Each structure stands twice: as structure tokens, then as C-alpha cells.
Amino acid sequence: MDLIVDFNNVKQNKIVSLKNTNIEYKKPEFTNWTFEVLNNYINEVLEVAKKLFNFNYKDLTIAKNSRLKRAYARCWYIRNHIEFSDFLLEDYVDDFVKSTIIHEMCHALSYQFDGKKSKIDHNHDVTFKRMCKALCKELGVPDGSKASENGETRQEAIEKYNQHNQQGKITVGKFVETIIDIVIKVTINVFIKAIDVDTLFLIYTTLSPYNDS
Ligand SMILES: [Zn+2]
Q: For strand 73-76 and strand 61-65, is the pairing parallel, antiparallel, or unpaired?
């Protein structure tokens, strides 16, 4: 039986995972996306786009559309108009809402950027993807360039957060268990190494209930 404890393994698996679950998991953020907040965020993205892509864009118009049920949002890129569904703004986590806003804006922006050169429907082509990726990166939100991405709802995010917190507590328990385990194993290991076979035999014969001598 191998009693040597691999401390590196213990460190990697237990202590680092403890740190990940307890400290690094962020509480999900939800914004109350009123029309004004939405408009402010779009202006913020436009400012960044102006610096990144260095061209004079036409202003966008936006609307909240409670009747929009089949898509999170929709962009009429020739008219520079974007509509957002109520369910996107009310039910989804900020990261997804923001990357969707940027996704839709990029339909309009990429059309403005290379206009006639684009495909007629300007659907997720190279220019679009480059702009979207660059903007998302600059604004610190997940890449929104993929068209069919499904978002994480607020409810899912809350459940995941609670689960992570619970796992954190379990990990603490496991961590203490591991420490006790190490102490026992190291003690046995040191003990075995410290004594020779004769001493061991002596201990065995002294302690044995079948010892007649
Ligand atoms: Zn799209």
C-alpha cells in the first residue's frame, strides 16, 4: 500500500477549487432596463464604436416591443432601427442583454460601415463578426457575435449562484476532511519509516493477545 501523500495534487484539487467556488464566483447582476437605461447603454456602446472603428455612424433609433415574442431583439439595419423584446430586458442576465444589444447594433453599424459591399441581408458576415467581437471585448461582455446563442435567464443564474454557494460549503467540509486524512497518512508514513522491521515485530508481539511469552 502506498502511503505517500501527493501534496501538489491535494493543493491543486482542493485548495484551488475552494478558492474558485467561494471567492471567484460573481453574484449575477440584473439591471432594471428602463427605456432611459437602455438608451444610455446604447450611447455608451456607440461612443466606444466611434473610437474603435473610426467612422461617422448615423444615429440609431430604438424601441421596446412587448409584442416581440419570437426573437430577443430585431434590427432594421437600413432604417437604423432596433427593437428589443420585453422578455429579453426583464428575464435575462445583464451579460446576455448587453451582448444582445451589441449584436443588434452591429447589424446596423456593419451595414453603415461597408454598406453596398455587404450581402443584401447583411447576416452575420465577417465585418459583422469582427465588429461585434471587438465591441464586446472592449466593453467587457461575453462575445455576442453568434446568432443562435441562447441566454441565461435571471432565474437560472440565481439557481446556479445558490448551487455554487452550497458547493462552496461542501468543499470546506471536504477540505477539512482532506487535512485530517493527510495528518493521519503522514503520521503513519513517518512512523513506518522511523522504525525498522524488528521493532515493528516487537511491537506486534508485545501487543498481540496471543502472546504467551
Ligand atoms: Zn443577428
A: unpaired
Question: Which residues lie below 8 Å from residue 58, measured CB to CB, with a gap of 6+?
Answer: 80, 112
Q: What's the CA-to-centroid distance between 178 and ligand 1, angstroms?
A: 49
In this structure, which topology does domain 35-152 adopt according to CATH?
A: Zincin-like (3.30.2010)
Question: Could you tell me the distance, in angstroms and rounded to a whole number, from the CA of residue 98 to the centre of ligand 1?
Answer: 14
Spans of all domains in the chain: 7-23+161-207, 35-152
Dist. CA 103 → ligand 1 center (Å): 6
Grid cell at residue 211: 502472546
**Ligand 1 centroid to residue 125 C-alpha, Å:** 10
For the stretch 132-178, pLDDT in tens is 999 999 999 999 998 777 899 999 998 888 887 775 444 455 556 66
Query: Is the pTM higher than 0.90?
Result: no
Cell of 25: 464566483
What confidence tens digit (pLDDT) does each residue in 91-124 have? 999 999 999 999 999 999 988 887 666 565 557 8
Query: What is the CA(79)–ligand 1 centre distance, in A?
Result: 15
In the block, residue with C-alpha cell 439591471:
31
Q: What is the mean pLDDT of residues 69-74?
A: 92
